[in-house]
Amino acid sequence: MKRISLINIVTLLLVWGCNTETFLDLKPESSLVEQNYFKTTGEVETGVLNIYSALQLVTPAEIQLTELRSDNISPANLEGEWAAIENFSETASNDFVNTFWVTSYATLARCNIVLKYLPNVTDATKKAAFEGEAKFVRALTLFNSVRLFGDIPMPLVPVLVNDTEVFKRVSKDVVYEQIIADLQLAEANLPVSWEAASLGRATKGAAQTLLAKVYLTKKDYASAKTSLEKVISSKSYSLLASYANVFSSGMEMNNEIIFAIRYRSSANGEGQGFSYDFSKDGATRGLQPKTDLLSMYSSSDAVRYTTSITGTGATAFVNKFPDASNSGSRRDSGTDWIVLRYADVLLMYSEVLNELGTSPTDALSNLNAIRKRAGLESYTLEQLPDQTARRLAIQNERRVELAFENYRWYDLLRWGIALDAMKKHFVAIGRSVNVADFRLLYPIPQRELDITNGLIAQNPGY
């Protein structure tokens, strides 16, 4: 994680974070480490930093379950688990599904460990911030999980072997209530910014932005509007003049970045492999944008195209996350993964204003700010005279502006158009794929079903 590295964490601490085969497969050593380590403010802060390290492991699997699932990309070689996700044919034994589940619950475990030992923090300011960080990451993890699986287990304290009730799935409505509560606490507790050595830790703006996204997903447009206006009025973030610079390896954590998962090459495993897998040399010989997405880039949209994509037609590959400085292993990139950025804030705000129907001029103004940065002409009310026309324009702009950043599948789900969009996509690229409605949720991993002896029920259809 760049500057907030965990390289020097003692070996003893690593034990409690490494039991990730399944979040239910708990080891007694975990309790021994807790009892002997988290006794001081510094030791609890080490646990906080280890939460961010856990997020590093979630990202590759989330890309596989969201961006790969969407109509943005397809693997060059339709083989194995990649093909199963792409073709909507995965089973409960799918490795990508299992990896996302395991790493997500390992992240939740680290959050809950920190929250348990907050009373040992003697500095009140740090204590508040640590709680905010743990609850922000817990909310982010629960949010992604509930969108992909529906009802899920929701452990809010460290899980012991005999805590069978926590293994049961909780209603998604209850999960969303917890997510909102966690983010409201995080917003209140987190600082506006961190010193340079701690860039990458969650901030007040990150909590406000994620909370707005949660409200938008729940179609609570009024609450989303309030949260987004806090981010905008803070003036803590801005659009960079250059779209390409947002993703430049030399400008990470720039003014457009609200929250990112940080990586570092040649740092004892803190690098990432998704940059490699996006490329034509990756695990499936690259991830490729197909004709329906490629056709959405106009000739005037050259900067966004060349920043996001290399090549054309059948030789087009994702190029948004290169790592030119990586001279070692191709799976040890130091390129960060951007989770929240200001362009998304403006597009969400445009969407909220349009859905509320109270300010079409302001809705277009925020949409056009994104288009202006890309070098495109602004929309007028004459071109987009009604809510439906503006909604489609916002949806299309999100697809291009945020391409390959794990937004598209979540957007399709919350708009309620995932089935229709995917059917059109497969027709457009000339492939016959049956997209069943039950596959809008992923299966609960088979290992979890086996271990819990029926306490966790499988999603319908699997």
Automatic annotation (TrEMBL):
Family designation: Belongs to the SusD family.
Protein name as catalogued: Putative outer membrane starch-binding protein
Ranges where the RagB/SusD domain occurs: 291-462
Pfam family, one: SusD_RagB
GO cellular component assignments: cell outer membrane
CDD domains per UniProt: SusD (cd08977)
Location of the SusD-like N-terminal domain: 23-216
Broad class of the protein's primary localization: membrane
Protein's organism: Dyadobacter jejuensis
Protein localization: Cell outer membrane
Alphabetical keyword list: Cell outer membrane, Membrane, Signal
